[in-house]
Every structure is written in C-alpha cells, then in structure tokens.
C-alpha cells in the first residue's frame, strides 16, 4: 500500500507540470478529496471550500480532477465568456452505460444529436402557439383529476347514513380531503411530452403510462442519493457491487423498450436514415426520447410539488397570487402566456420558487475541450491517467448570492419585483426558467390556484440533495373554489 501511494504521488507530481490547476485541498491517493466532502450535502461542502480557496478551486473526485466554479462571476466567465472551451460534457461514471442521447453524451455525437433534437422539436411545434395549447389542455385535465381527490369518500358515505354524509360534507367543504399530489403532478408534464412526441396524451390511469412515470421518478431519486455520489467517485463499485445503481439501468431499459414500441408504431411515417457516424439510429432516437422524458417530466413536476409546498407554508403569498389571477384572468377563462406580463406578482412567485428550491444545485458536470488558460491557471484537457478535467458549476452559489437576493434563505417573491411592483428579471436567473419548463410552471400553477384553495402544512426540507433536490412527501387538500 505504501509503495502504491508513493507511486501515485510520483505520478501526480510528474503530471502537475502539464497544467497549473487552481488551488484546493490536498487529495489522498486513490480516494482524492472524498472524505472532505459531505455526500449528503455536497453544496454546503463547496460553500465552505470556496471560503478557503476562492471562487475557482480544484477537487479530486476519487482520481478524477475537477475544477469548481463558485459564484456568478466565475460561472459566467467560464461557461459564457469561454463557452466553447468549457462546452464538453463531463463524466458521470455511474451513468456511463447510458452513452447516447443528449444528457449523458459527449463530443461531436452529443452536438449532432442535440442540434437534431432541437430542430425536430421545433418542427413538432415546440416554442409555438401549438405548444401552449397542449399545456393549456393538459392543465384542464390536471384540474379535473385534482377535483376527484376531494369527493371520493363522500360517495362511500352515501351508502351509510344521511346524517354522516351531511356532517362530512360540511367538514370536507371547509378542509377538503388530503392527498399526495406527486403522481398527478408527474402526469401533467409527462403528457405534454407525450402529446408533442407521440402526438397523443394518455389517461392518468393508463397502466403503461403509470409504470413509465414510476420508473422515471424512481431513477431521479436514486440518481440524487448519496449512494450514486459514491459510485461516481469510485466507478469500480458499479461493475462489482450490488446496489441501487442496478435499478437505474433496469428502469432505463424498461422506459427505452416502451419508447421503442412507440417508434415501431410510427415506423411507417418515420424518415429514418441509418448513419453510424452521426449516430442517427433508432437506438439513439429511443435514448434521446428517454432523455426528454427525464428532463421534461421530473424536473417540472418536482418544481410544481415544491411550489405547492411553499404556497402552503406562505398563505399570504397564495392569497395575493389568487387575487391577481381573478383580477387578470377571472374564474372562467384559461390562463395563457399572453397574460403573464399583466401578472407580475405571479410571475415573480414562479421565478422565486425556482430560485429558492435550488433544484439542480451543482448542475451536470462539464469538461474542457482543450487546454485553456483561465484566470491565472492552466487547465489541461487531459490530466494524469488520461483523465479529462471535469468542471463543476455551483448554481446554488448563484441563486443564493446576497448581492442580488437579500436574505437568500428566505422565500420572498420581492426578489423579482422592483419598487413599483413590476417584474424584475435578474441576470442571475437560472436557465431552467426559460422555454417549455417556464411555460408549464406558469400555466399549471395559475390554473390550479384559479380553481382551488390549498390546505395543509409540512416541512420544505429536501429529502435528498444530490443531483436533484427532491421535496419531502406531503399531503395537501385541493378545495374547489
């Protein structure tokens, strides 16, 4: 063991001449800085390290060299001012088996697939009025499904005494029946993706549809768990040890097989050209669609769950939003994106939810595409043992920057309002606040609040805080207005 440590130290010193990496804590052989990071709350560890080593510092995730950008200025300088040099996709060893699609891909293959996917989604109506129509239609279906959560027990009591029925009806009208909204809120954004890609939506009780979302939801929880952080630091675990990571691969295969069946149904009208070099194959198409489900379903539904949870905890905010909805939209018209400019407080609430929950604290890792001089450092593309240099961006440090957001730990829509109550767009706004995700959040949330009062109260502390922050399970009462 001592000889191995000396050998690794020697190799590290020898390779250090290839690049002057930013400062950071001294890594141990093999395990790197693993024991200096709290895998249950990586972001807090990064905050502490940034106070010691500055906004740009180096960590070793196992033997993987990783440069961390902490704070708005460092992230902007890296990902915007030097966007091309830092545009590579970093490695997540725990998910290396899924080496296609647009999330866990890299290099020219990733760029070609991403370009093709964006072009195809635009051709299918993404970003156009037809997309808003789909979201509005699904918002009404969501409301109808939520209405069912309030009346099921009354029908049962109807078979008993009329007295109990009247008594319970009075109680339910005041308090409602509690339910866990997780599944229903998962259905809505998933159906938007389905209606865009498959050209049809599914009933919320469709067996295949239910199984599909259960797999996607389970994978998100596992990928955000401390266990997956261990797997990403020590890839050997993946091949030789049992664990939840194997469930990810099984669930992925299930969703992929479901998508392949859908592809076969559309095979007659599919313009397919097999091109091995550009990776335009049926297999890559299936993985890309699976990625769209992951990015377009779970992130939006999780944000919606957090939004309702925060509104329960801050009823005064809920009241102001509902008053604005009634004033601008009324009770009988469906909310639309055109009316958003006339609803500055509601728009601010949607943005503040995204800021406050810090859904993806450290983003997916990037990778340098070439040796680059950044500030006073030289970051090499390839470090020792032929490992590329990963780049981690602390989005949490941006969304909780005290310069832009006074009292960042407090949920306050005023962060996005000026002195006159007009919506104020921040330069540090998260990228996820754009496009389809923002449209869905605004339309789903306003439609729910237009039709229901909310009752309940519980904690807003995330259950897991790894790749994605996941809210705790909770019960909520949707009381029809």
From TrEMBL:
Enzyme Commission number: 1.14.14.1
Extract one GO BP annotation from the record. xenobiotic metabolic process
The Gene Ontology terms for molecular function here are: heme binding; iron ion binding; oxidoreductase activity, acting on paired donors, with incorporation or reduction of molecular oxygen, reduced flavin or flavoprotein as one donor, and incorporation of one atom of oxygen
Q: Name one Pfam family in it.
A: p450
Q: Topology with regard to the membrane? A: Peripheral membrane protein
Q: Which domain of life is it from?
A: Eukaryota
| UniProt cross-references to InterPro entries, sorted A to Z | Cyt_P450, Cyt_P450_E_grp-I, Cyt_P450_sf, Cytochrome_P450_fam2
GO CC terms, sorted: endoplasmic reticulum membrane
Report the principal subcellular site: endoplasmic reticulum
Give the protein's cofactors.
heme
Q: Which UniProt keywords apply?
A: Endoplasmic reticulum, Heme, Iron, Membrane, Metal-binding, Microsome, Monooxygenase, Oxidoreductase, Signal
Q: Where in the cell is it found?
A: Endoplasmic reticulum membrane; Microsome membrane
What SUPFAM superfamilies does the entry give? Cytochrome P450
Signal peptide position in this chain? Answer: 1-17
Q: Which PANTHER family match?
A: CYTOCHROME P450 2C18, CYTOCHROME P450 508A4-RELATED
State the family it belongs to. Belongs to the cytochrome P450 family.
Q: What is this protein called?
A: unspecific monooxygenase
Q: Which organism is it from?
A: Nannospalax galili (Northern Israeli blind subterranean mole rat)
């Amino acid at each position: 063991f001592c000889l191995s440590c000396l050998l690794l130290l020697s190799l590290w010193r020898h390779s250090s001449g290839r690049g002057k990496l930013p400062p950071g804590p001294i890594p141990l052989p093999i395990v790197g800085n693993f024991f200096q990071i709290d895998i249950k709350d990586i972001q807090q560890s990064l905050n502490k390290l940034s106070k010691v080593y500055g906004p740009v510092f180096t960590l070793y995730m196992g033997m993987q060299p990783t440069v961390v950008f902490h704070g708005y200025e460092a992230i902007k300088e890296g990902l915007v001012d030097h966007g091309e040099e830092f545009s590579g996709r970093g490695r997540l060893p725990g998910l290396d088996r899924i080496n296609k699609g647009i999330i866990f891909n890299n290099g020219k293959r990733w760029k070609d697939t991403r370009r093709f996917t964006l072009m195809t989604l635009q051709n299918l109506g993404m970003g156009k009025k037809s997309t808003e129509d789909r979201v509005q239609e699904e918002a009404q279906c969501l409301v109808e499904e939520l209405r069912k959560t309030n009346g099921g027990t009354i029908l049962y009591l109807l078979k008993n005494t009329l007295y109990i029925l009247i008594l319970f009806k009075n109680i339910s009208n005041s308090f409602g029946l509690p339910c866990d909204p997780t599944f229903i809120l998962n259905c809505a954004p998933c159906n938007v993706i389905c209606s865009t890609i498959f050209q049809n939506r599914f009933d919320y009780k469709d067996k295949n549809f239910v199984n599909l979302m259960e797999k996607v939801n389970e994978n998100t929880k596992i990928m955000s768990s401390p266990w997956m952080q261990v797997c990403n630091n020590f890839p050997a675990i993946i091949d030789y040890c049992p664990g939840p990571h194997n469930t990810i691969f099984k669930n992925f295969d299930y969703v992929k097989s479901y998508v392949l069946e859908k592809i076969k149904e559309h095979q007659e009208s599919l313009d397919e050209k097999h091109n091995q070099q550009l990776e335009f194959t049926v297999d890559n198409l299936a993985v890309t669609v699976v990625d769209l489900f992951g990015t377009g379903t779970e992130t939006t539904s999780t944000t919606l769950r957090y939004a309702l949870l925060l509104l329960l905890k801050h009823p005064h905010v809920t009241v102001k939003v509902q008053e604005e909805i009634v004033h601008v939209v009324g009770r009988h018209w469906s909310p639309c994106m055109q009316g958003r400019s006339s609803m500055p407080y509601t728009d601010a609430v949607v943005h503040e939810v995204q800021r406050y929950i810090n859904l993806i604290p450290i983003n997916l890792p990037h990778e340098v595409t070439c040796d680059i001089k950044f500030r006073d450092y030289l970051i090499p593309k390839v470090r020792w043992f032929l490992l590329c240099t990963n780049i981690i961006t602390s989005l949490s440090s941006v969304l909780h920057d005290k310069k832009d957001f006074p009292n960042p730990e407090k949920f306050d829509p005023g962060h996005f309002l000026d002195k006159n109550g007009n919506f104020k767009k921040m330069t540090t706004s998260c990228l996820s606040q754009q496009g389809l995700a923002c449209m869905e959040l605004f339309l789903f949330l306003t439609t729910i609040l237009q039709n229901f009062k909310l009752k309940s109260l519980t904690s807003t502390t995330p259950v897991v805080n790894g790749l994605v922050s996941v809210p705790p399970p909770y019960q909520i009462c949707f009381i029809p207005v």
